[in-house]
Structure formats: C-alpha cells, structure tokens
TrEMBL record:
It holds the Pfam family EthD. Residues 11-83 form the EthD domain. This is EthD family reductase. Signal peptide: none annotated. GO terms for molecular function: oxidoreductase activity. InterPro entries: Dimeric_a/b-barrel, EthD_dom.
C-alpha cells in the first residue's frame, strides 16, 4: 500500500478555501482511478512546534493506493490532472507540500 499525502498550511481565508476544497477539489480527487480511500483531516493544534518551522497546518489529505504502479497510473489519469487544475484554481498550490509514503505497518 502506498499513500499520497498533502499537507496544507492555513490560507488567509480559511472558510473560503474550505468551501472550495470540499465542494470542488475533493469530489474530483475521489474520482481518481485506483484510489482506495481518501481521508482529509483538519488540524486543530500542533503538539510539538518547531519541526515544520513557522508553518501553521490547516488540512492533511491522505489518498491510499494499492501499489506504486497503481499510483503512477493514477498520476496519468484525466481525473488526477483535473484535480491538479482545480487545486490551482482555488489557490491550493501555494499552500501545499505533497509526498508519497509506503505503508509499512498498520
């Protein structure tokens, strides 16, 4: 199992970003071929400050895929490209750090 993780810092207008993210972006992401599960969590507080510098986290999104091969195919899909275009439209690209991680224990 591999997951794609997106960490979003707090936007200037949280309510506006949340409305656009949950109403437009997340529904597009959920259509990605090979996506097993998508979880989005709103950060309520950081317990050990400093590791992320002065970044104030807002949302953590985790998308699970069966394998790296499935994730790579998802990256090529029209749905994934549409999600990226939408994220750019709603201002999310300036707020996000993205990476993948192999799930090694549950």
């Amino acid at each position: 199992m591999i997951k794609y993780i997106a960490l979003y810092r707090k936007p200037a207008d949280q309510a506006d970003f949340d409305e656009k993210y949950f109403a437009t972006h997340l529904p597009i992401v959920r259509k990605t071929p090979g996506l097993l599960r998508a979880e989005v969590a709103k950060v309520d507080r950081v317990l050990v400050p400093g590791f992320l510098g002065d970044t104030d986290l807002h949302v953590i999104a985790e998308m699970y895929f069966e394998s790296q091969e499935v994730l790579s195919a998802a990256f090529q899909s029209p749905e994934w490209h549409a999600a990226g275009a939408n994220l750019s439209e709603i201002g999310g690209l300036e707020l996000v750090a993205m990476f993948t991680a192999e799930v090694v224990a549950e």
